[in-house]
Amino acid sequence: MKTLSKIFMVIALLAMAGSALAGTLEKVQQNGELVLGVSEGVAGFSAPDSNGKWAGFDVDMGKAVAAAVLKNPDAIKYVPLASKQKIVAVSSGQVDLSRGTTWTMKRDCKQGVDFTVVLFYDGQGLMVKKGLGVTKATELDGASVAVVSGTTSELNVADFARANNIKLETVVFESKKEAFNAYVAGRADAFTTDVSQLASLRAGTTNPDEHIILPEVFSKEPLSPFVRHGDQQWKDLVTWVLFGLIEAEEKGITQANVLEMKAKSTDPVVQRMLGATGDVGALIDLDNDWLVRAIQAVGNYGEMYDRNFGPKSALKIPRGHNNLWTKGGLIYAMPIR
């Protein structure tokens, strides 16, 4: 009987622990803030600006969710996370939503998180200094490469070396900043991570022209914001807020014209999206102005991209795969209906 009592006690404790983490939407609304996991400082994605305010693509994504849920895009607590911390921070409930990371089978199935929408299609590359005299990655045979431990980058660069029958000595660091600074200081011949982050980190150096991003892209890195596994209500909400930003670009709804479009558009899809007709907000437990607020806060997907990566940004990364499907890209929203 004592054994049976202990079993029931354990089950009860586990149930209590589960309920403590349940209901992220309710938690966010009660606390009046969204806890957002961001990077340690990667320009374009998430980094403090000159005034100390967080800015970037991942920050905009968080602002859209906060606007939809809390009616205040600035009601966010930012938690900088190293690459090795971001999965655990979400699965444990330390943060409500995390910056985009590569959607892999292991992370999705066995690490306690659920991915939402791919917002940025990327791929891994290598950066070297001009003085090394290298123009393609296969010329790096025998070179040392700075890499962050426990990331997909570590595995990908090893696979690339094996596939091309070259030897690369990986020099492993705990954080991206450490790895990049070591490369800049000459402690490694090359540095590897996603191409977009290579561009971001290069832009922040004293002399960006000194560094070359080699042409080979040797992995698929679909970056998606993610949430704690098992909270379907929260996953659905975040997913459809992000799909809404993509659909807004396709329908020509912008930060400047969203209210006019709500009042005057005769497109039934636009009317439904913006709450002029129907009740789609109820499907994600929000009111019907959820998407209007999100677009007012950050604009549509294209506006977010252009602001952080486009021609007016320091990075100037062509949209490529991150263009709408109607323009030859891979960005595609599920129907809001």
Care to describe what's here?
This is Extracellular solute-binding protein family 3. Keywords: Signal, Transport. The protein has 337 residues and is of the alpha/beta class. The protein has 2 domains: 24-121 and 224-327, D-Maltodextrin-Binding Protein, domain 2; 123-220, D-Maltodextrin-Binding Protein, domain 2. Helices cover 39% and strands 17% of the residues. The protein is built from 13 helices and 13 strands. Strands 1, 4, 5, 6, 7 and 13 form a 6-stranded mixed beta sheet that branches. The chain has a 5-stranded mixed beta sheet with strand order 10-9-11-8-12, sandwiched between helices. A hairpin with a 5-residue loop joins strand 2 (47-48) and strand 3. Helix 3 runs antiparallel to helix 12 (290-298). The longest helix has 20 residues, at 2-21. The radius of gyration is 22 Å and the shape is globular. Mean pLDDT is 92; it is low at 1-20.
